[in-house]
Amino acid sequence: MKRKVLVLSMALLLMVSLLTGCADTKGTQTPPASKGNTTGTSSDKFKSRTIKFLSVWPEDDKNSNGWIISELSKQYGETVDGFDLEYEYVAIDQLDQKVKILMSSDDLPEICTYESGVRLKQVIQADMIIDVEKTFTELGIRDCLDEGAVSLLKNLVDGLGLYCVPLGMNMEGFWYHKGLFEQAGIEKVPETWDELLEACEKLKAAGITPIVQGGSDNWPMTRVLNAYLVRSVGLNAVQDAVTGKRSFTDPEYVAAAKMFQDMAKKGYFAEGMNTIDPGTATSMLMNGQAAMNYDGSWKASNLNSEDNAAGPEGIGFFNVPVVNDSSTLLDYSMNCGNILMFSKKKYDDKVADWMKFVFPKLGDFAMQETGSFKGFAISKMPEDTTYYTQLVAEHLAKAQNAFLWFEAKMDSETSTIAQNSISLLYTGEITPEDYMRMLEETAAKSR
Prior knowledge:
Layout: H1 3-19, E1 50-55, H2 65-77, E2 84-89, H3 95-104, E3 111-114, H4 118-125, H5 132-139, H6 147-156, E4 170-177, H7 178-183, H8 193-205, H9 219-233, H10 237-243, H11 251-265, H12 278-286, E5 292-296, H13 300-303, E6 315-318, E7 331-335, E8 339-342, H14 349-370, H15 387-398, E9 401-403, H16 412-427, H17 432-445
Parallel strand pairs: 1-2, 1-3, 7-9
Antiparallel strand pairs: 3-8, 4-5, 4-6, 4-7
Helix pairs in contact: 1-6, 1-15, 2-14, 9-11, 11-17, 16-17
């Protein structure tokens, strides 16, 4: 898909489809998927069944997608007989292995969290999940999907189609603690990488931890490496290396790994960052224990909560600073978060009925309850939209081009090495040359 089309979908159609698309479903009931209905006596209700949901999110965390799916499912359960959502949690670093085991036994659950891109593409090619665009069209709920998210998801699987639903419409960059910036004498947010490094020096001199990442999950650290790589090489840096047009061992690619390691050596990252989980990293930012955290717009739900000690406007956001003219501040890292895919083998009228209830409501419910964009159309923005939600909307509207996260186009083995080895790069146990050489050797096998 040409970048121009992708940009149009994500930047322009996003803001249109957020406010149009599906009609307001508040207070309505789901059309039955088979004989029976959702009104009348209990015996007249649609007969549902247990539906299994494999999730990487805690079910009771209101800031998580798991809670949103669970709450909407509870509402659905009130309209039908015999429904139960069987919730299974798996740690995100174990998800890929879990899914592969389930695929090998042909036992994917009805609803399964996964990662878009190369990994999802493999499931599509195995013919184990439903065509979401076709299914949602048949169910009459296709217009509840945000068109920007649809374009991005299709692009991630090289145009094979839409075989998942998003659980986010996210842009990424640096969240920063305004009070700590002021304390360190930083008068404006960095727009170039040199300015970012200068800000880190000022923060460090003031006794403030410059940057914290949830390094125990690995990907929050590869995001920082990727940020410099894209800004120094170009928006398609990783895809060019994966396809062989460039090499991970090219000097510019090694330089990105060296930048990450040098920042660690200079003390710009939190001590022991490779053992800090993402939730703790967020808390450290909000509590003033660190000045910056590279993360996504999904963090707005955390910032909107009462747990944010920085207050309703105490945290700001800036896009990844530029290194040269290979990209601009109007180019954002964008993604749809972890996605949901649905077992083809276990799809039936029971799952269809659940879908018709949950997904037309998801965009509005997520916005009203957590102030976050989920890649679904929003029929009406709340009148009391928070500062953080407005901030996300403003940056999404600015986006003219998009680039992907580090592992998006990598095959499974290369992705695993990229994430599992980033901690060794952080601690200095391997060199930048070694890190990139391992990626090149693995990526070359799948070209």
